[in-house]
Structure formats: C-alpha cells, structure tokens
Amino acid sequence: MTLSHVVVLVLGALAGAGLALLAVRRLRAAEERPPERRILFPYVGTQLSISALDAALRIARIERATIVPAYLVPVPMTRSLDAPIPRDCGRAFELQEAIEHRAAAAGVPVDGRIGPGRTVRHALRELLDAERFDRIVVAAGTAHTDGLSAADVAWLLEHAPGEVAVIRPADESALATAA
Amino acid sequence: MPGRHKVFLGMAAGVGKTYRMLQEGRAELETGRDVVIGYLEPHGRAETEAQVDGLSTLARRHLTYKDVPFEEMDLPAILERRPELVLIDELAHTNAPGVEHDKRYEDVADVLDAGIDVFSTVNVQHLESLNDQVAELTGVRVRETFPDSVLSNADEVVLVDLTPTALIERLQAGKVYPAARVPAALNGFFRVENLEALREVALRQVAEDVEAKRLKGDTAILREDRLMDRAAPLAVAERLLALVTPQPSSQRIMRRAWRSAQRLGADLDVLIVLPREPSEAEREQIEAFHRLGSLLGAEVIVEEGDDLPAVAARVAAERGTTYVLIGTPAPRRGLRRFAEPLTDRLVRALPGIDVRIVADRSKRRGQ
Predict the structure, then answer these.
(1) pLDDT at position B219, please?
(2) Residue in B with minimal Cα distance to A90
(3) Residue A152 burial by CB count (10 A; 0-12/13-18/19+): exposed, middle or buried?
(4) Is the Cβ pair A66, B248 closer than 8 Å?
(5) Residue of A nearest to B199 (CA)
(6) Among A114, A160, B84, B119, which one is least packed by beta carbons within 10 Å?
(7) Does any CB of chain A come closer than 8 Å to the CB of residue B187?
(8) Is the pLDDT of residue B79 over 70?
(9) Which residue of chain B is at minimal alpha-carbon distance from A97?
(10) Given a cut of 60, is residue B218 above it in pLDDT?
(11) How would DSSP label each residue in B300-361?
(12) pLDDT (0 to 100) of residue B362
C-alpha cells in the first residue's frame, strides 16, 4: 500500500464521518423541531376533566401535533383586558402544570396560553383571532368538572374555524383542582 | 409652605361627602382652628344643612354671563380672609367665564399655594383617567373632569363609602334629590349595577392612591438617608430577570420566575436574546410571551445579540436586577464541549447577582 492509498483511505474515512455527523444532526433537528399542527384545548374554572384532556392528547399524539391548553379568564369591565391578573394566572399555572405533566407522559409537546376576555366566549374569539389552530377539543361542563356552557359550545360550533370536538365527560373525578 | 389638601371622594352624589367634610370641618373648628366654608352646595339636603351650624360661610361671588346670572366661589375673598382651613365643595366644577380660573381645582391650587389648608369633595367619575371607563360602565359621560394629579398630589384622600342599596334607599327617601327628580334618577344613573361598578372603581382608586403614596414615602425616606450618608449602601428591592428563549418550553421558566417574584414581592423582567432574525414560529412565541407578560405584570424585553451573558449583564445593570433565572442549558455537543459553560459565563458577567438554574420538575426521579 502506497502513501497515496493511505491518504485516500484517510480522506474517505473523514468524509464518511462527516456525512454520518450531518445525518445525525439532521435527525436530531427533525426530532427537536416542534410539530406544526396545533390543537387548542380551551378550559375554564378550577377543575379539569381527565377524559377531555386525554382525548385531546390522543389526537395530538396521532397527528404529531402540539396541544395548546388555553385558560379562559373573564375580566370585569372595570379592568382593561391586558391588566395584570395574578390570582387567575396562579390558578391557570396550577392547571397548566398538571396538563404538562400528563402531556409529557404521552409524549405530546405543550404550548400553554392564558386568554383574557370580557366573557368566556369573548376570550375564545380573541384567541381564535390571534392564533392559528387546526383543531379544537373542548370539554362541556358537567356537575363534576368545569367546562364550557352549552351556549358557548354552540357558539364555538357555529363560529370556530376547523374541526371542533366536544367531549362531555362521564362522571369522574377532576384531573386537577386549582385553589 | 403650601396648605394641606384633604379630598373626600365618593362613588356618586348622595353618599355623604359634603356631610363628612362639614363634620370634620366642625371638629377642626372645635380644636380652635379658624375654619370657613369657601363654597358649599347643600342641594337642599336637610342633614347637610344642619352640619353648617357654627361654621362661617364666605359670601358667593355674583356674576352675569350673556345675561344669565351665576354664583361662584369667591377666590379673592378667601385669599384676603386667609383662614387656616377652608371647605370647598365640588372640586371638578367648571367656573362661569369671568373669574380667575376655568376650573375650581385651579382655584383650590391658589388657595393651597397661599398656605391655607383645604378640605374638598368630588365624585370618582370626574377623574380624567376614568372618564372613558365610567362612560363605558354607566352609559353616562361626565363633562366636568379634573386631572388625576390633583388627587395624587392631595395629602389625604378619604373614601366616603355607602353600599349601592343604602344609597338607593336614601334616594327613595328623598334625602338626595327632591321627590320630582327621584324616578328619573332611579331609571338613569342610580341603578344598582352602575353604582356597584362605580363603587368598585372608587375603592380601587383609593387603594392605588394609598399604595402610590406609600411608595413615594419610601423613596423620600431613601433620599433623606442618602443625603445623610452617601457612603451607606442603599437598601434595594429585589428585581428578577428571567432569561428565556422563544420556545414553548420557556414558559416553565417564566412561571417559576413569576412565582419567585410573587413570594419576594419583586418586579419581574423577562429577557429574550435573539442571535438572528426570528422565524415565524419564534415571532408568534414572542407575541405570546408579551401577552402573558402583561397578564403577569412582567415586562418582556427582546434584545438582539450573539453574546447572551453580555446582553444579560447590560439589561441587568439597566433594570437593577438582583436575581437572574435561567433554564437548564442544553447539553454541549461538538467543539462547544471545550468552551466555558454558559452558566459559568453568566455568573462571571453578573457579579453580585444571584443566578438560579430552573430545573424541569417533571423529570424528577420517582415522579
């Protein structure tokens, strides 16, 4: 084997390693890139339905989508819509963390929101105007868990773009209860 | 030395502002002070008129404008009489043309400048900054307004409070307006929902005023200390700075930083440093951070730069940061393994500032 053979072999090995490194990086980048589909999961009150959240997570996992749990906060007319609402934020964060915990176990990325509005419906409309969502999964209120009222669900079905899935939870204990 | 200004603030007519002002005026008179009534609008309320007994009243000034006679407060007479304390009703009143000032609060400023103490009355809906809000709440736009600075510069603001139900009962009993005006008032401005909203606004206004005066007082004390001993270190409040990236995962850092800020009673700033033009998704996330920041009462700052520790150090110096929070840095790969870790560079760039790494608690073992 001559020196030129050795040089060719070394260069070939280096090129192969470089290509392998590039492939690994691309693979990692693809893994790290957030999924582009977004599923809105609006919720209200202090108690969250397990079955509604699980339904949203199942859809998100199948579609490799990000779930966007959005806590809807009615803000009284005496306050501006962008005024600080620490008590509501504290409550939202407790529920959001419970959602993130469950979503992490399901391998679904989360991008939480807090949506203020004059009413639940107004908060929803503001959110839908500000951001793009591919689907909406929403829990209807029951005796055991907080959820959207029948009137708000009807409004959503009539006005929201994209698919809307309404879950009416069966009797169950709530996933999380915020103070 | 300017006089002291005490304002009796109410949610609406009839809550008893003038009554309370007269009551306190009489109490001052009984302690031996020279107290006069500069201007009073008793609106024919017997209870209010009874409180005038014993207090001397300065005569009103008579004016005629376009053949219409007017009665106004006589500012020159007050300044000439120079009492120790003067009681002046209806601070937001607009004067008739031909007197010294357009507005009564301007007359009051002259009285205070002359070293005379003033007690005055006003309803919360006359505050300039609340005008739109009150119009939105009640459907009634108030034309006579006064600047917020009048209230914030007052030495004392006393809220004269009454429940909406009690006020409506007073109205129905003819204690606020003559009987002929009661039905119109009940159907118009004096509805429970209007009064409830106005009461909330008034309570909030006074609470904010008390807080602002407390903070102003703290600053004044701090300044005095500084004059006494320039070398003494200043006691500073905690201020947190959360370093985040425009990624959904950074919300966790924002939440933890906000909770820490709440516990410490500190202000929170959130810093995003962009090494390049943000992508569409990053721009959306920055927008979402701005919205969340306003709901949390935090300021979201976006800066461009390649050197995160240098930018963080500059912003921390500008904002008076005492505490920096950062997420767990990503594992270093490739040649970056040989570079100084980000956390070390941050600690070096931020001397005297606590640096805390926020862990992802969902990754805790046994969870």
Answers:
(1) 45
(2) B259
(3) buried
(4) yes
(5) A78
(6) B84
(7) no
(8) yes
(9) B252
(10) no
(11) EEEEE-S-HHHHHHHHHHHHT--EEEEEPPPPP-GGGGGSPPHHHHHHHHSTTSEEEEEP-G
(12) 60
The separation between CA B100 and the C-alpha centre of its own chain, rounded to angstroms, equals 30
CA-CA-CA-CA dihedral for B27, B29, B34, B40, to nearest 10:
70
Q: Does A32 touch chain B (CB under 8 A)?
A: no
The answer to whether A78 contacts B258, with C-beta atoms less than 8 Å apart, is no
A137 & A95 share domain: yes
- Looking at the structure, tell me whether residues A116 and A41 fall in a common domain: yes
Query: Going by CATH, does the domain composed of B239-363 fall within 3.40.50.620?
Result: yes
The answer to whether the CB of B216 falls within 8 A of the CB of B208 is no
pTM as predicted: 0.53
- Within chain B, all domains assigned CATH 3.40.50.300 are found at 5-222
Residues of chain B contacting A66 with CB distance shorter than 8 Å = 248
Around Cβ B143, how many Cβ atoms within 10 Å? 8
Q: Does A75 touch chain B (CB under 8 A)?
A: no
Are both A18 and A47 inside the same structural domain? no
Same domain, A50 and A125: yes
For B95-116, give the DSSP string: PPTTSS-SBHHHHHHHHHHTT-
In this structure, the answer to whether residues A59 and A145 fall within a common structural domain is yes
User: What CATH number was assigned to the domain covering residues B5-222?
Assistant: 3.40.50.300
Q: What is the mean pLDDT of residues B342-358?
A: 88
Range of A151's domain?
36-177
Which pLDDT score is estimated for A177?
A: 58
Span A134-144, pLDDT tens digits: 999 999 887 66
Note whether B343 contacts A: Cβ–Cβ < 8 A.
Answer: no
The span from the CA of B98 to the CA of A133, in Å, is 63
The count of structural domains within chain A is: 2
Instruction: Name the residue facing B294 among A82, A104, A111 (closest C-beta).
Output: A82
Average pLDDT, chain B: 83
For residue B60, the SS3 value is coil
Asked whether the beta carbons of residue B296 and residue A84 sit closer than 8 angstroms, the reply is: yes
pLDDT of residue A144: 67
Pick B362's closest partner by Cβ from A78, A101, A113.
Answer: A101
Instruction: Compare CB distances from A93 to B200, B255, B291 and report the shortest one's residue.
Output: B255
Average pLDDT of chain A to the nearest whole number? 84
In terms of CA atoms, which chain A residue is nearest residue B132?
A78
Q: Is any Cβ of chain B less than 8 angstroms from the Cβ of A109?
A: yes
Interval B288-343: pLDDT, tens:
999 999 999 999 999 999 899 999 999 999 998 999 999 887 777 777 777 788 88
Least confident of A154-168, B122-136, B156-170, B259-273: B122-136
Q: Are residues A17 and A81 in the same domain?
A: no
pLDDT band at B212 (very low <50, low <70, confident <90, very high): low
